[in-house]
Please model this.
Amino acid sequence: MKDLFVLMVFLCLSLNSWGQTMIKGQVIDSESSSPLPYVQIINRNGLSYTQTNDLGQFEISAKAEKDSLEIRLLGYTSLVVLATEALHISLSAEALAIDELLVSASRSVASRSTSPVAISSISAQDIKQTKATTIDQLVNQLAGVNMVDLGNEQHSMSIRRPVDYGASYLYMEDGLPIRASGVFNHNALLEINMADVGRIELIRGPASSLYGSEAIGGAINFISSRGSLTPQARLGIQGSSMGYARADLQASSSFNKRLGIQLNGYYAQQRNGLLAHSDFYKMALNIGGNYQLDDKTSLSAKLSILDYHSEMRGSLDSTAFFSRSYDSDQTFTYRKVKSYRARIDAKRQWNSHSFSKAIVYFRNNGIEQNPSYRVSDDYKPWSGQGDPLLAHGQINDNSFISWGLLGQHQENWAWQNAQLIIGGQLDYSPNTYEAQYIQIQKTEEGLYNSYTTTDSSLADYTAHLLNTAAYMQYQMDLFEGLKLTAALRFDYFNYSFDNQLGANAYTAVEDGSNSFYRLTPKLGLNYNFSKTKGIYLNYGQGFVPPQVSALYVGQRIPMLDAVYYQNYELGSYLGIWKNRLRIELSAYYMSGENEIISVLQDDGTTIRQNAGGTVHYGLEYSLRIQLLKDLNLSVQATNSIHRFTDFEDSRGNDFSGNDMPLAPKFFMNSMLSYQPSFAKGLSLRLEWRHLNKYYMDQANSKEYNGFDCFNLRLGYQYKNLEVWAHLMNLSDELYATVASASLWGESYSLGRPRYLQLGVAYTLK
Model:
């Protein structure tokens, strides 16, 4: 009887598979011709199912010329195609995708509706249409972001915090931090190669439970573009009326359906711009490749190279700013950056529910500066003391080398749609820092006309940074529509300090070590009413150890404590009007303990000091609406409060209850996009950026009134040819990207007046 049953099962399976063959194919993005991984391929007439690999390839059992295959990927329009040999399928991105695949919320592929965090993204299509010359033109399209342009791709950031120059944000490339923890630099995004960015994802609020320290205000993940399956190269040039010029090169191809290679880079320079002493150049180059060992295993490698040099004009005082006088008071300050990053990624799909990956990486980074922000006058006008013809400065070199390993494993179970992610990271990053005092000579007219090097060393040390971490995240459906997410991470930092200077030096910390560690949890709930409507709730903690230079430079005893944050968040997303209207909301409350604040000293310099307590709360909202078939409107806005709850500076001033400086209570970025169907390839975008007034100092004694800036972007593509013209700051608004005040007066970083940007690109296929 048993043998008869086995025979019957065999015959049924044989009849079902009669005439079936292995259908092979590839799926690509219709806009970029890049391969699409994780695409679901479903045989609608059978029981077979598969998904594409990193090269967009798939194999599925089906009856040729008879079975129908459904092609599905979140964020793209689904297709149904007839099963034929050598399928080549193009998917088009949805104009207003309500749910989409994201990789940053869980360090793994997940849909937006299962991620209980405030997360948003900028698609490859948006990046292509914007044709940004600086990264802030892209990320400022996201709710909750005020990225400040400081000129020549230099920047600072504000996400759920005031405009900040400290370690409150984590910047990543393909899920890996671009700098070592403990040596944060607010200009770190200089190291991003914009020619290689295929997508940008932003997690707002503390993301420490997965990514570790510095992911407090937010974590930005720059996801590399995917190369073409066939030989393709794109050449582009552009220039502006402000003396800016740039050339781009992007080339890629695949070979033998297993190997893919690509090269992306650009060279940009500024010459004889509006501001005196503001020239710069940047060369960024990424070389990468991926190899599909078999259907379940892939390897990829990438090398990133950056060479950057910029003169540092610095900010303007109030007289120069309002009189539009843009001469420089010196000609010798500069910033030089050289960085190299290399990584090898290995991925293995063990079966349909088990996945592992490992990354081995190396970083070599150096920043040499004669910084304008370190120039301070000897003469103190409020006391009448000092030499009015003398100023002080420094030349410094801050460098680090990293070796690291990141590993992660993921298990999925059918029971309650449960998922477990576990991972760990080991990062060793010795950091060297040297700073030499320079004596600066001033003229009676107030010009810093020259400087003299000295043998006075302000800092000369090596700090051996070792970060070991382990993390986990578990998800499960409590019942239909309701998903629970719990995450936990442990970080241990050890700074082993080796000082080359003596006990009487400016930096006189004795040799030794400092350790910081923290267990950071996160707990979240998602409830989805439907595929286009859902809410989420989460609680999370954040942790930031003091940065090495703030802890040791100019100190005798390390005096800074680690910073802790607690964050509560409620959010929702919904799509209505046949999904032509997409709305996302997130309300948050974040409190900070020991937050590190910049405090002005009597000589005009600043030191870093722990504040007793701060509070940050607000509402972020995003609206995207398809007004007409060819007309879309996008509005991203933020209302927020950032306040000291317990803070007394080193001079005894109590600022408790004051608003934190550089913290506008409202800012907005909106965009009206028109792509007429009667003129295929034509696109027109009108942008409006608004920033409310804010306090310029901790005493709340001076305010900056904010600004409104309008940009017009016009583009046209005919076959392989692209041309564009951008008219920036249409109204020629006089505005500052950031403004601050101190005992020395007011300081304004100039926003560029009206200018024209022209470009042309051609794609060889």
